[in-house]
Amino acid sequence: MGRIRTKSGKVITSKPSPATVVKEEPSTQSLLSKAQSLITQCNYELSQKFIRRILERDPHHVDARELLGITQLEMGELEDAKKTFQSLLSPTRSTVVPASAHLYLAQLSDEDPNLALKHYEAAVGILHNQLKGKERADAPTDADDSEESEADIRKNIVKVLVAMVEIWMAPTYDLCFDPKAEETCENLLKTAFETDSNNIDALICLSSFRLSQQKPEEAKQAAIQAWSVWKDEEDESKIPAISSRIELTKRFLEVQEYAAALHVLQTIMATDDQDVEAWYLEGWCFYLMAEQAKETNTKIEELSWEELAKDSRDCLENCRSLHTNLEHPDDKLLEHTIELIGQLDSLGIKPTPEEEQQEDDGDEWEDLPDDEDGDGDIDMS
């Protein structure tokens, strides 16, 4: 834009022609934010366009390369994703290797458990360094933010340690037959509790591990402790993820703590009443209770085996319907659901008519006391 003085002495301002206007390039941060937003929207192809614009400016941009790997992973380009995450393992002078790169590579190494364990070990090392403050970038100055950041790192460390225990315990791998498997799992869990003493996922993992050792009482106590951490929590942000609550439900079923399992399932239904696995587990829980009541010729929570079986049938029918409507990928879950429905049908147990279900839904188990379970009384506190 120029200034021109006329013969009369007046100063006028000239407007630039459109051709001379230079459009400001978006900042790297704005491109990164846009790419992240598109990933959240599952628009991976468009997200990649923004990511590649960042990488044209800075081929070694860590966050951009990580996002590129995530989009490739989501699009099923597993080999490309693996190469992208591997490229993050060579740090430059201005960057460090992100723990997330090792975590993704561990998940992509499911056919090689030893390689997966190496990546998990590397991730734990990086996270421990962050916990010590050695490699933490952009350290927050606010005390509350600092505490929250430390808590997040501790939770992430425990998640990795739990993943390592699960690899050692997995029957699909030969590692579970290794003479040092049990001791290794004990040490990993010990480190997990030293890192975060009341971590729910670690307690659930401990319960599973004790079951594998044929120590049902210790497994039950670990599951109860995991539940006690959050069962009276009013802050929804502190309630564990649905996946963790699903696993806790499974542990309760395995140790025959049926009332506790139903309580946990109610919290899942309150969050998502279309969770297919939750409906399956509730149906399976009522089925086990009905089986127990029939075998002992007793009532459980004042319900006969026929009433419990009918509740089971209704839950399983809901599970089957949702599985089909939502195109749920777990075919084995559907197979077992259909098998259980067939067994109930052979016993003469028919589903409740839909109009009756709507009237009675949730009434029978709404006010269960915390100290009762399907096979006796127990203090859950």
Automatic annotation (TrEMBL):
InterPro entries on file: TPR-like_helical_dom_sf (IPR011990)
Return the Pfam families for the record.
TPR_19 (PF14559)
In what ranges is there compositional bias, type Acidic residues? 354-381
Query: Where is the segment annotated Disordered?
Result: 1-25, 345-381
Name of the protein described by the UniProt record = Uncharacterized protein
Native species: Schizopora paradoxa
